[in-house]
């Protein structure tokens, strides 16, 4: 591998959020001036997948796309709920469609915050959604971009059971994971 240019990579941001609709160009310009070389844009639900892919095409090589189904589905600020397998059904065909353009599968993980998942059924459904996406990532040879909240040990156990360490894992929001997995993959960034 040759010399790598100096710069920062934001390994997890939600650029498809409507908060950025009015000033995304400004935000990206400021990021460039602050020596940010690339931004990894993650998804929460299938409804934003196309937007993320469009952004990654418009800012090719600067916005790097991840698609995945988050354990908490925020359909609006007032409507947040634990993920279901039905959410995954909607997402999987779109992930397959764009598989060759993705940097990683994410944002995926477990969120056992009581306000989202307070029943065993909800937690189990989150696990099933995560397992399916870990297996998908392994099949596609893509790394993971992982979320965990109030579910540290269950997340680590699940990733280990699924042998997710064979994927290089980008862990977010979670100190224990950061110590256990590598977050060093810069696939398709053109900076290697
Ligand atoms: Zn996130």
TrEMBL record:
InterPro entries, A to Z: Metal_Hydrolase, TatD-like
**What the protein does?**
Exhibits 3'-exonuclease activities and apurinic/apyrimidinic (AP) endonuclease (in vitro). Show preferential AP endonuclease activity on double-stranded DNA substrates and 3'- exonuclease activity on single-stranded DNA.
Question: Which SUPFAM superfamilies is this protein grouped with?
Answer: Metallo-dependent hydrolases
Instruction: Name the source's superkingdom.
Output: Eukaryota
Source species:
Marmota marmota marmota
Matching entries from Pfam families are given as: TatD_DNase (PF01026)
Write out the similarity annotation: Belongs to the metallo-dependent hydrolases superfamily. TatD-type hydrolase family.
| RNA-binding listed as a keyword | no
Instruction: Give the UniProt keywords, A-Z.
Output: Hydrolase, Metal-binding
Q: Which GO terms describe its molecular function?
A: hydrolase activity, acting on ester bonds; metal ion binding
Q: What is this protein called?
A: TatD DNase domain containing 3
């Amino acid at each position: 591998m040759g010399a790598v240019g100096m710069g920062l990579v934001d390994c997890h941001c939600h650029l498809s959020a409507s908060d950025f609709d009015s000033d995304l160009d400004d935000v990206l310009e400021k990021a460039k001036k602050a020596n940010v070389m690339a931004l990894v844009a993650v998804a929460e639900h299938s409804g934003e997948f196309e937007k993320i892919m469009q952004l990654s095409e418009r800012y090719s090589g600067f916005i790097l796309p991840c698609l995945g189904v988050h354990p908490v589905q925020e359909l609006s600020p007032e409507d947040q709920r634990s993920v279901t397998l039905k959410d995954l059904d909607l997402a999987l065909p779109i992930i397959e469609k764009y598989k060759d353009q993705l940097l990683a599968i994410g944002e995926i993980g477990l969120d056992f915050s009581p306000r989202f998942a307070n029943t065993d059924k909800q937690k189990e459904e989150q696990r099933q959604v995560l397992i399916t996406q870990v297996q998908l990532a392994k099949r596609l040879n893509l790394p993971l971009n992982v979320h965990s909240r109030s579910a540290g040990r269950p997340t680590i156990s699940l990733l280990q059971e699924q042998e997710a360490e064979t994927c290089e894992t980008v862990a977010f929001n979670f100190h224990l994971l950061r110590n256990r997995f590598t977050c060093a993959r810069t696939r398709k960034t053109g900076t290697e």
